[in-house]
Backbone:
């Protein structure tokens, strides 16, 4: 495995590997189809793979991509054949046919050079054309499905990079951004940002790019004034739209959180992952249960929940590949990377 392939902005996180059939691949992203539970995508250091049969077989769908590492995938919620991919060093690519072919979409992203990373791509709620990108050079917005991009950083201070974004589902003009300087909020569609760090980042460490290490920010789909921020230094929660934050989840055995998932169908149900596995809370983060049965490696890189069935979860591990749970994490089974030969 190449040492260079392990260079992600969170350098404290190690390489996450998918191994099968003599192959050792680093899983950096899991993306699930919004309406068909049998279709899923995985991005590795070198390729993007697609399965149409719940992970039993996979197809390499990287035609048109460069060799730049894919960091994030986002599937159009209304027209799932449209997929956008953010890379480490080569901006954004888009597929219009379910990943069979990819084309570069970097107009307005010309400054996103080899030294930068597109960490996350998110579609605005209910839209196929409105997309935001969180990158190491800031927030970018596209209103034409990713064809062109505009930088949206007005008001952001002490920010070296933007890692994660999420929307208020009731008011899509309201966004939260997890950055190297903590959390920012916009109420006008990212035209202007305000820092909302009270209780989150101490002022004496605010200017440090590792001050907080935000990995994921999520707005509660049931109570949108409630927002959760997963970081390399624990889990934080606000109940007032970011005016004040409190630390929760201090009973978790490892505070370096790699991912965060909220259940859209059940109030107060959420999952986090770290180097000790997957943990579930059913009381908005007050108490936690380990959900690791069947995992041969508990060092988790990524979590994903099916939009069709919230009992269906996928986890990418460090060294033992992809796992699936059909029962909300009570048990896990390995999903090998069995790649079909191209015709």
Residues:
């Amino acid at each position: 495995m190449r040492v260079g392939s392990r260079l992600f902005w969170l350098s404290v996180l190690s390489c996450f590997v998918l191994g099968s059939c003599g192959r050792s691949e680093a899983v950096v992203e899991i993306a699930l189809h919004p309406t068909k539970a049998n279709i899923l995508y995985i991005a590795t250091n070198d390729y993007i793979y697609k399965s149409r049969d719940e992970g039993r077989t996979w197809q390499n769908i990287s035609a048109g991509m460069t060799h730049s590492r894919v960091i994030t995938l986002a599937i159009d919620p209304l027209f799932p054949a449209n997929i956008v991919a953010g890379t480490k060093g080569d901006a954004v690519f888009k597929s219009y046919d379910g990943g069979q072919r990819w084309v570069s979409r970097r107009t307005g992203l010309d400054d996103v050079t080899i030294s930068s990373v597109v960490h996350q791509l998110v579609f605005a709620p209910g839209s196929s054309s409105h997309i935001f990108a969180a990158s190491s050079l800031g927030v970018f917005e596209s209103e034409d499905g990713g064809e062109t991009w505009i930088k949206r950083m007005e008001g952001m201070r002490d920010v070296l990079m933007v890692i994660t974004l999420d929307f208020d589902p009731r008011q899509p003009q309201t966004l939260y951004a997890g950055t190297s300087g903590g959390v920012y909020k916009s109420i006008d569609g990212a035209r202007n940002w305000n820092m909302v760090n009270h209780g989150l980042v101490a002022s004496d460490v605010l200017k440090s790019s590792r001050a907080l290490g935000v990995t994921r920010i999520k707005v509660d789909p049931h109570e949108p004034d409630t927002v959760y921020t997963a970081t390399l230094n624990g889990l934080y929660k606000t109940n007032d739209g970011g005016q004040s934050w409190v630390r929760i989840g201090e009973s978790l055995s490892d505070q370096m959180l790699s991912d965060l998932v909220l259940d859209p169908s059940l109030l107060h149900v959420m999952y986090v992952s770290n180097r000790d596995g997957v943990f579930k809370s059913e009381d908005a983060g007050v108490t936690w249960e380990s959900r690791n049965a069947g995992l041969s490696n508990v060092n988790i890189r990524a979590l994903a929940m099916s939009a069709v069935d919230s009992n269906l979860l996928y986890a990418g591990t460090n060294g033992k590949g992809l796992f699936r749970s059909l029962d909300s994490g009570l048990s896990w089974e390995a999903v090998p990377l069995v790649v079909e030969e191209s015709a």
In short: The first strand starts at residue 17 and ends at 20. Residues 163 and 197 are 16 Å apart (CA to CA). The domain at 60-291+322-331 is CATH 2.130.10.10 (Methylamine Dehydrogenase; Chain H).
